[in-house]
Amino acid sequence: MLWVVFLNPASHSPIATIQFIPFYETHSMTYPVLINGEWRVSTGTTTFQAVNPATTEAIAGDYPVSPWSEVEAAINAAAAASKATRGWPGERFAKFLEAYAAKIEQRADALIQTANQETALPVEPRLKVAELPRTVSQLRQAAAAAREGSWALPTIDSKANIRSVLGPIGPVVVFGPNNFPFAFNGASGGDFAAAVAAGNPVIAKGHSSHPGTTRLFAEAAREAARETDMPPGFVQLIYRTSHQDGCKLVSHPSIGAIGYTGARHTGLVLKEAADKVGKPIYLELSSINPVIILPGALTERLDALAADFSSSCLMGNGQFCTNPGIVVLLKNSAAEQFISVVAQKFEAAAVGTFLGEGVQKNFIAGIQALQKAGATVVTGGQPGGGKGFSHRNTLLRVDAKTFINNSADLQTEAFGNSSLMIVAQDEAELLAVLDHFEGNLTGCIYSDTQGSDDGLYDRVAPALRTKVGRLLNDKAPTGVAVSPAMNHGGPFPATGHPGFTAVGIPAGIRRFGMLQCYDAVRLHRLPPVLQNSNSTGAWRLVDGKWTQGDVVT
Amino acid sequence: MLWVVFLNPASHSPIATIQFIPFYETHSMTYPVLINGEWRVSTGTTTFQAVNPATTEAIAGDYPVSPWSEVEAAINAAAAASKATRGWPGERFAKFLEAYAAKIEQRADALIQTANQETALPVEPRLKVAELPRTVSQLRQAAAAAREGSWALPTIDSKANIRSVLGPIGPVVVFGPNNFPFAFNGASGGDFAAAVAAGNPVIAKGHSSHPGTTRLFAEAAREAARETDMPPGFVQLIYRTSHQDGCKLVSHPSIGAIGYTGARHTGLVLKEAADKVGKPIYLELSSINPVIILPGALTERLDALAADFSSSCLMGNGQFCTNPGIVVLLKNSAAEQFISVVAQKFEAAAVGTFLGEGVQKNFIAGIQALQKAGATVVTGGQPGGGKGFSHRNTLLRVDAKTFINNSADLQTEAFGNSSLMIVAQDEAELLAVLDHFEGNLTGCIYSDTQGSDDGLYDRVAPALRTKVGRLLNDKAPTGVAVSPAMNHGGPFPATGHPGFTAVGIPAGIRRFGMLQCYDAVRLHRLPPVLQNSNSTGAWRLVDGKWTQGDVVT
Fold first, then answer.
1. Which of A422, B365, B507, B537 has its CA 20 to 30 A from that of B55?
2. Does the annotation count A357 as an active-site position?
């Protein structure tokens, strides 16, 4: 193995890898990790490679599995960065976020090319037109929120001189998922933006399926951090650790909070470790996102519904957190017709590529588990059919009685291009199905526009409401707008706490704040956002009223 | 044992025990539990009695330890109540809370007499003038918040028609502590008021040290619930369960969230059970509430500070969550003088009575643990000196080096009339002491009024800020105003999550809400607080601006 490492003459640490990309892409070498502002040769002894899911071939370049000493170095640097930035105005974090967004745009082509290679997600429209613009927009929205300060719910009781606001919670570890290499990336996505907007350093744990993409982000973030005078440990990147070290990381005394988006099992292991020492851990785990189609809607617009549903379900090869994995129908000929039309669309649609071999394996296991639990295959059910790691678009069905009797197994997530149709004999069975749902991110109800479904809607909606974070009408769940009113969250096991959202500003930022109250603190010592004069124009709850004005004493 | 039970002719269940109080107080019998709106004879086979801490004698009347079947019946009734109240306007919960507050006032004398007997807390001013008025005031503030709706942060994106609001999280179990028989009681306190204001039924777990007080509250709550047409399972009471059943209760699928105030060990056992299944559990555990007195303040007003500190530390015999258990001083003659004056005040002050034998035992163990860890007794240190369960007012001291080297043991909480003075050699040592603090509810800094301490303040305050929920200047921590800006919370292990407060409206209510988003939901189907017309005048975040107005489309 050939090693060419240029050392920084001052610090003797390796210089940023950006200069070596052409070399890395043709030769085998281990990429460094980003610790305390520098790209360091990892001291880890094991490595892994990314795999191109479309060709199933490994991509040149090794990524290190960091040993505990390296993880600890990152934690210490993050703690120092947290200390160094204490009391900084939101403006400082905003400037970094904006500089970072600009740097991402500057290297958009490299990011898109690398992500396409590592994830098989299409360049257009997905990566180029949808996800990259969304990512920089999130960073800029977070910057605006950080600058202005309303997100932190500043609250002033002027008579008692008690004032409170959400302040930085401390270093945040962000575990990004496999399915959004940009918008949920640990080094650039929604949790990253929110944690920074709240004033916290981030240790990004890159997802193993797209380490190159994450590396490019970290390079841009490091440059932006330097240019905006952030402390060296403000943004760091490690690619992988042992499971044990992952648990030590999330439960370390210097860590403030954790954001995790990914598989349920790993998430729950991390949750247990973090919970034990009272570290807030925000999880986004699996969700099957039930869709209830009421009979009037089928009578009114069956073909449109089938088209809408099929396209939502197969979008991105079904690899969305909000993918509609269950459809509930009332038994009648229209329901049979609907299933049949959807099956035809599933057969006609191109089969996409999975994000990786693991996704394919879990998908196959999921489909088998559903069948074992009583579901039957309407169409699909076989691996292959697309480029690389793939599986035929798969539609399953089961009757409501079987579902009710075996609801846990029949809620196994088959993450990918599949869905399960549940056919209920009557309304009572349909409502019983809802009562057996676990917590989900979303729930949709389709009803007719003339009112014939309204009575049933009024019985279905309250039951579904408590099971899902976001309730939709006549709309597929796969679009997750970055809106202040969005909830990308929901009851366990979809997330770890039903009061928080992972998407949307300002609410998403609040996850990474600790409530800081100032009781009788002398006025000149208060943070700017709590002083009588409202310098940033933040919305503040002053003596019971929301206002952008000054406190009049 | 003589049993006289009047049965309800309709339901054959026992009639409310209020009618039997004179009988209960002179004879031995087992009190019923409140399940699904009725006082039921417990099926438990073991019982316990309250003890008068001032006389150390048992109080007549047995209270049942509820078996699992009884706990389960309460859970099922609460789940039914939760279902029955889905979609109710805040007005309904407000009416109940107000009726309940009035009923508490009607039976104030009985409550105060019983609480005084069970806790030895003085009738005046504590129970009558301070705690009872605070309790009914909290209930009425919660009612006003429920009626008006701003607490739930209604957020509207009118262009996208995405709207969100905090809705009821589901049945809440409230475990009340021993030290506030009214204001934090599981059946009447802050968590109770907040859970109900958010629209949730409550299962109160009474504290074993004051079951009679809790029973009187539950009787009043039951009457208020009947008069305001709440479902029968809306307020329920059990007195005690096995530890195992307590864990089953907090992790039951039908439970929405848990509020717990009390000892750390029990709280952490419940936390583990709840965390495992993603049930939000809000804990208020032990806290030692450090006080930092800067040298200029001692020079300026030593006697006033000693008086202020001693009175805060011994108030309620030191049995406050925010009791100042640690004082940090810079070594000099004024610090020695301060310790000496406080010691004199501790010796001169009357010794109070502990809330129970367990508190006395833990206090003695705490003082011994601190001594074993290197602290020495300045004054006190011996049991007795007051009526019943008591211990002499105890002041300890330790040098900063010893504290830093053994900081975990030296942060053992001795809940009661004691405090530990830490004397630091220099500023660096003082700052190192702060770095070793665990999470706390409060932290106080006293500085001089002329500015001589300001430089040091600026180094001390940022370090203390991240360790405490509430930072105070020149003020003792024991007063916890029910203010919208209050934070009665803080980092672990003071609580389980640093983003929430147990005292204060509206923030305290938000703990018991789940985020409910409505995406493209037809306008007439939205809950009233999210409709275009703002019927309750709630503050809503509409298109980025807080307003009480309607949505203009």
1. B365
2. no
Q: How many residues does chain A have?
A: 553
**CATH topology classification for A30-284:** Aldehyde Dehydrogenase; Chain A, domain 1 (3.40.605)
Per-window interface: B 510-529 vs A, CB < 8 A: 510-511, 513-522, 525
- Whole-angstrom distance, CA of residue B32 vs CA of residue B40: 5
Answer yes or no: do B521 and A471 touch at CB < 8 A.
yes
Q: Tell me the C-alpha distance between A25 and B190, whole Å.
A: 61
- Hey, of A519, A525, A541, which one would you mutate to test binding to chain B, going by the most B CBs within 10 A of its CB? A519
Q: Do A507 and B515 touch (CB under 8 A)?
A: yes
Using CA atoms, how far apart are residues B34 and B212, in angstroms rounded to an integer?
13
- The active-site residue, picked from A131, A284, A413, A429, is A284
Q: Give the pLDDT of residue B14.
A: 56
What distance in Å separates residue B199's CA from the closest CA in chain A?
Answer: 13
ipTM of the complex: 0.94
Q: Which amino acid is at A217?
A: F
Select from B471, B525, B546 the Cβ nearest to the Cβ of A517.
B471
Of the partner residues A470, A472, A492, the one whose CB lies closest to the CB of residue B277 = A492
Q: Which residues contact A368 (CB under 8 A, 6 or more apart)?
A: none
Domains of chain B, residue spans: 69-284, 290-473
Q: What is the distance between the alpha carbons of residues B497 and B284, in angstroms, rounded to a whole number?
A: 10
Tokens encoding B517: 């988003």
- This prediction's pTM: 0.94
Out of A162, A442, A462, the one facing B481 most closely (by C-beta) is A162
A457 interfaces chain B, CB cutoff of 8 Å: yes
A451 touching chain B per CB within 8 A: no
Write the CA distances from B491 to A149, A167, B121, B435, B462, integer angstroms.
Answer: 22, 12, 29, 14, 15
* Cβ within 8 Å of residue B306, ≥6 positions away: B338, B341, B342, B345
B167: contact with A, CB 8 A cutoff? yes
**Could you tell me which residues are beta bridge partners of residue A345?**
none
HSE-up of residue B473 (Cα within 13 Å, Cβ side): 21
The tokens for A138 are 């999130």
The CATH number of A290-473 is 3.40.309.10
pLDDT of residue A2: 36
How far apart (Å, rounded) are the C-alpha atoms in residues B320 and B478? 7
Return the residue of B nearest to A148 by Cα: B544
Distance, CA of B446 to CA of B298 (rounded, Å):
9
Residue B164 has pLDDT above 70, yes or no: yes
CA separation, residue A272 to residues A267, A279, A496 (Å): 9, 10, 11
**Omega of the bond leading into A125 within 30 degrees of 0 (cis):** yes
State residue B57's pLDDT score: 97
Q: What is the mean pLDDT of each run of 10 residues along chain A (553 residues)?
A: 47 48 53 98 96 97 98 98 96 98 98 98 97 98 98 98 98 97 98 98 97 98 98 98 98 98 96 98 96 98 98 96 97 98 98 97 98 98 97 98 98 97 98 98 98 97 97 96 97 98 97 98 97 96 98 89
Render A388-416 in DSSP notation, one character per residue. SS-B--EEEEEEHHHHHHTTTGGG----S
With a CB cutoff of 8 Å and minimum separation 6, the contacts of A380 are A346, A347, A391, A392, A393, A394, A395, A417, A418
Collapse the DSSP code of A53 into the 3-class scheme (helix H, G, I; strand E, B; otherwise coil) and give the result. coil
**What are the φ/ψ torsions at residue B191 (nearest 5 degrees)?**
-65, -40
Q: What is the 3-state secondary structure (H, E, C) of A486-547?
A: CCCCCCCCCECCCCCCCCCCCHHHHCCEEEEEEECCCHHHCCHHHCCCCCCCCCEEECCEEE
Fold of B69-284: Aldehyde Dehydrogenase; Chain A, domain 1 (3.40.605)
Cβ within 8 Å, pair B499-A520: no
Nearest to A259 by CA among A204, A323, A212: A204
